[in-house]
Amino acid sequence: MTDANVASFEAFLQGWMVRQRDYLNELLSAQQHHQELQDDDVRQLINRVICHYGQYYEEKSRIAHHNILLVFSPPWFTSLERTFLWVGGFKPGVAFQVVNTALEDLSEEQRQRLSQLNNKAKGKERALNDELAKLHESVAAPPLVDLARSHGRMCFNRSFMAEEDAAPSTFKETLESLVANADALRTNTALKIVQILRPSQVVTFLVAVAELQLRIRSWGLDKDAQSGGGQE
Prior knowledge:
This protein is an all-alpha fold and 232 residues long.
């Protein structure tokens, strides 16, 4: 395992989470004063938040290229956060759950468009799950990989994670491609949701997403502290 890469990403994530809280405060302020804000001001804030998420995926792509196995069992996440992983990140379907929970003023047209988008995303999720299952079946040595088939989660045993070079290059390249495709599905789905919503609804959606993420991380940190650490 390349400790320098882990330390670099952990430092990035720490700063990113601080900015995430700052953006959440800006979004909450925009919610409270929406009648006083110009549409352009709201759109600029939305664009900044979207760019903020883009920075995360750019940095994640870099570390995935250095060591793709880290993305499947990231030491920078708490044990609770790791339970939500699907092909190295959250399931696209989570975004629709957030929309349905946070927004009560969706029009019928918006609901229909979101439903169509959700169905397409589910189809692509299933395709990625199938690819992940086929990859597992192609690995001859059982100790190499422990695969939790449900929800496309993959867990690597300690000896395998400790020795990055043990994995064949073609295996790592395929995993990297799967994560890149999953990340593209996550980001494209979120962007299409944003396009369907009105600016004020987007702000509410982004508030709910950030609050959920920060809440899960806080719970995870507390849980790991009580159990003596989240490293596996």
